[in-house]
Amino acid sequence: MPLALLALAIGAFGIGTTEFVVMGLLPEIAGDYGVSIPTAGLLVTGYAVGVVVGAPLMTVIGTRISRRTMLMLLMGLFTVGNLLSALAPSFGVMLAGRIVASLAHGAFFGIGSVVAAELVAPHRKAGAIATMFTGLTVANVVGVPLGTFVGQAVGWRAAFIGVAALGVVGLVGVAALVPDLPRPEEARLRRELAAFRNVQVVLAMAMTVLGFGGVFAAITYIAPMMTHVAGYSDGAVTWLLVLFGVGMFLGNLLGGRFADRRLMSMLYASLGGLAVVLALFTLTAHSKVLAAVTILLVGALGFATVPPLQKRVLDQAHGAPTLASAVNIGAFNLGNALSAWLGGAVIAAGLGYTAPNWVGALLAASALVLALLSAALERRQAPAPEAPPAAPAAATPSATPAHR
């Protein structure tokens, strides 16, 4: 794999760290600003909304410049947003910093996916995309726990300064290692928007919303589920989330490896397996050992869908993939927000802390149905194979009268 993918992975590591580290520091942030925990939770919601809005917005802005330049600008914006959060004198400024940083998220992964795919041979595109996303999965194993530890030990502002430093490293890496690929001549906004008229692009994005949404329906409420149902201590939740991150890392590698061989088969297996495991989680959540194993499997099966779904969008939006790729990253966050709301709704309805697992299972199963529908439509739309040319007819001798 080209070294340029390392620069993209470093950027992804920083983005993944800042997205999730705030969850472990909410009590400290809320206490510092004198706001409630639910109010501090707006830092998570605001970031997700910023990703959904920023993905298409920043990608459209970047259609007139080279992709490397746009990636550098996005890492600069990410760095500024995190510095603003670290130095914010009030909660409102802190929230503004989170939103500024989030604007870079979707476009970075969207444009980065296109660049990663262009750096390798066609049969290695999903693997290249997975390499970039490795930074995001490693962030959940290393960056988030380390940032949480630093934030709790030294102060939450130090954690955000550290993330801003990662943004600088990512910017320098992109400038030094990513080739200055020319902007395709056909890269025009009208052409990019035309990709959304392709029903296969829309179906792939719907699979993204529902499939990865299934993961977050369960993981959003993992703390109360593990402490009230499985019997873990509060301190053990951090390490259970690390286990989830390990699963994400492994699933990302598997998804990238097998999506280059049998993309749709990989989607069927990962989405179907995810639906089954999430349904079983309602039972395994009552056992410490089985719950830990299930969390690992949810992370692995959930993130195994990411490289094939991203490559599916790139393939179907062929010729103008940049905007569609970025919007698909926003679709992941839209699924996260939707599933978190649905999971909270079933808990509020009195169905218990394991009820979000059923929500996740239904979402993943719905994504599997869409994958099967997408494949069926693709088979129907495929041109029929040309019939082989007919064999020349045997020559028939002219009839001649025997007698004149």
User: How many helical elements?
Assistant: 17
The CATH architecture of the largest domain is: Up-down Bundle
Number of strands: 0
Distance between the termini: 85 Å
**How is the main sheet built?**
none
The sequence of SSEs as H and E is HHHHHHHHHHHHHHHHH
Within the CATH hierarchy, at the fold level, what is the topology of the largest domain? Growth Hormone, Chain: A
Any descriptors?
mainly alpha, Growth Hormone, Chain: A, 2 domains, 0% strand, globular
Explained architecture:
Mean pLDDT is 82; it is low at 394-404. The chain has helices at 4-24, 26-33, 37-40, 42-61, 67-87, 91-118, 125-153, 156-177, 189-194, 199-219, 222-230, 236-259, 263-284, 288-303, 306-316, 322-348, 355-381. 78% of the residues lie in helices and 0% in strands. It is built from 17 helices and no strands. The chain is an all-alpha fold and 404 residues long. Helix 4 (42-61) crosses helix 6 and helix 10 (199-219) packs antiparallel against helix 17. It is globular, with a radius of gyration of 24 Å. It has two domains: 1-181, MFS general substrate transporter like domains (Growth Hormone, Chain: A, Up-down Bundle); 188-381, Growth Hormone, Chain: A.
Quickly describe the structure:
The chain is mostly helical and 404 residues long. It contains 17 helices and no strands.
